[in-house]
Design a protein that fits this description.
homodimer; alpha/beta; four-stranded antiparallel β-sheet; four-stranded parallel β-sheet; elongated
Chain lengths: 368, 368
């Protein structure tokens, strides 16, 4: 029986680790005491099994648990549930990695566009890409559309909604998407180059169909989604449908003890994110360079033939750090600068142009 | 402007707390430096404000941040995003509580049935309720339906799917729900009393409509959902629709840095859970009695006129602990015993009957 292998870090005395690992294997699949599992189909095809235990560098134990593929099939929510559903409630366990057979990975499908498809949509064949965010919540659609036009004239490649923009009174989803789309079309008529707009697609199962229909009608080609808020099923639905390029946002993704490189890197890629946004080291978030390196590796490394996904470092970046960022990630990256552009006030477009130029210049100096 | 107030525990030196709290207020709403926020509508109606800072018992600082109601409106995902979206990625912050004005709480609506409605559906006016789970994954629908019939004959009030049962090859959702429904109808014909069945409703936005239609067609009256996996929007949709009683499951809610009483108590109740399942102290999960007490309080205490929701302690309970549990929670509780019943093997029904009797006996000894 082919299995997925999940790797957990157990913060328990070494002598307790074997029993603790066995308890996780049961908890995450049958939720029964071992002696109550007697059916041969359940034992062979569903029950988790401990397949490795080794001391970790920090005194913790790394436990490898194999889950038979039928336990989750091709269901993204069940995959998450089997990996960490109940165990997320236990404070002595972290989920740090997973290994999945090629056929199962390809059944989930991964990014439908990936780096190459995003480059094609944005019209950027080789250099690092640029992204800016429309914000803040509370502004009117036309004001945000004005920012979008300024970014587009400045040569920014991708313009996305802030994740605080959904459907508030000051700025309804439909009004914003229509206004921004129109503004970007007008700029494209002037400049001959159209920025890629990624509205923030959130909502409940009852709200989503109307929002998706609106996007299709306006020929919007990309969205940003928060898989850990709206549900990983939305990410996977959109990837399977294949119409929209998908930027994954990490909102609420830090709430459980899961390695960022695994959740925002491997898992979001597996479920179809074409790009994954995360805080780069040294900004407002206390992430290390090693975490960001691992996350970018999980997004871009060869993996069962799935398309590579684009890392999108963000979180308090300033223009001054661009050469450092492009050296760190190489050209297959999208740099997202948010708040610091808005400090320029009336000089927003000028500051965005400096951003775009700095990224192009930094790209010329590194190999891809 | 009315506001929601969120309470965070900041693990930073006391001297850094004012700036850290201010940074959270910005991060969770405008995601901009303060000096870039100049629009009066944004300042008054959307921007978060620090309204209190006090030393906590553990050397941390408790920060109170007020979020104007328009920043999230009546959108459950935006509520979660504003409370903890990006901040969940920052390791020095915990979300511990929220206070919400009555009108805003009533706009979300809370439980549509609550304790009284669940008691009516289950036909249990006064004593503590009992629940058992169908498991494990990998068994055929008819086998699980046999367990359901045994539980029903034994007098168990609520029978729910394990959260590991979705739509796997061995047991498709439709086959399971049909088989269990039929089995419970047959038992009701014999005994005159019908157990309440709560299938596990999971799935992506594209999968859910067909599953919901099936449930409506079979006159299923309750479901279990995992808001932190399938999305809190599903919970809120189901509550607004009002057809189904809702048991919330804590899968992936192990929000190391969100207080369980807040997430599984207050927030799930606010969004419409009629009952909330959680691990009781002393079982397989390392939760304390104080955590469970606070959680039960948040579910049941008077709160802006919202219906109270039923606490459902679970997680490795044994029959021996029933008197203690009923004394701890009182009669407004549903005791969920899972795995330990299955250890009885062929004596499953007999063991379930002992469970039901023990709960009735324990209920008679405590005041409601």
């Amino acid at each position: 029986m082919d299995t997925l292998v999940a790797v957990y870090r157990l913060h328990v005395p070494a002598g307790d680790a074997p029993a603790r690992a066995e308890a996780i294997a049961l908890e995450q699949t049958v939720e029964l005491p071992r002696e109550a599992v007697t059916d041969p189909v359940v034992e062979a095809g569903y029950l988790g099994r401990v397949v490795g235990l080794e001391p970790g560098p920090d005194g913790a134990t790394l436990a490898r648990i194999a889950y038979p593929l039928p336990s989750f099939g091709d269901d993204p929510l069940l995959l998450l549930g089997v990996l960490f559903g109940n165990t997320s409630l236990q404070p002595d366990v972290e989920l740090v990695d997973l290994e999945i057979p090629g056929a199962a990975a390809r059944a989930f499908g991964g990014p439908r566009r990936g780096i190459a498809g995003l480059r094609e949509l944005a019209g950027v064949p080789d250099r690092a890409l640029t992204a800016a965010a429309l914000k803040p919540m509370g502004l009117a659609p036309e004001t945000l559309a004005g920012f979008a036009a300024a970014f587009a004239r400045a040569g920014i490649d991708v313009i996305k909604d802030d994740q605080g923009l959904v459907d508030q009174e000051a700025c309804r989803f439909e009004d914003r998407v229509r206004a921004v789309t129109r503004a970007l079309e007008r700029v494209a008529d002037e400049t001959g180059r159209k920025a890629l707009y990624a509205p923030y697609l959130s909502g409940s199962p009852r709200e989503l169909p109307a929002r998706l229909e609106l996007l299709a009608g306006l020929d919007v080609r990309a969205v940003m989604v928060s898989p850990m808020l709206a549900g990983a099923g939305l990410l996977h639905d959109l990837a399977r449908e294949g119409r929209l390029a998908i930027l994954a946002h990490p909102s609420w993704a830090g709430a459980a003890r899961v390695a960022p490189a695994l959740l925002l890197g491997r898992i979001f890629r597996l479920l179809g994110a074409d790009a994954s946004i995360f805080p780069h080291a040294g900004g407002r978030f206390a992430w290390t360079a090693a975490t960001c390196r691992a996350l970018a590796d999980r997004l871009r490394e060869p993996w069962h033939g799935l398309a590579p996904a684009l890392p999108v470092p963000a979180g308090g970046m300033t223009l001054e750090r661009i050469p450092e960022l492009v050296r760190f990630y190489g050209r297959d990256v999208m740099l997202l600068v948010g708040g610091s552009l808005y400090l320029a006030g009336d000089r927003l477009e000028e500051r965005a142009r400096e951003f775009a130029r700095a990224v192009a210049a930094a790209s010329a100096e590194v190999s891809r």
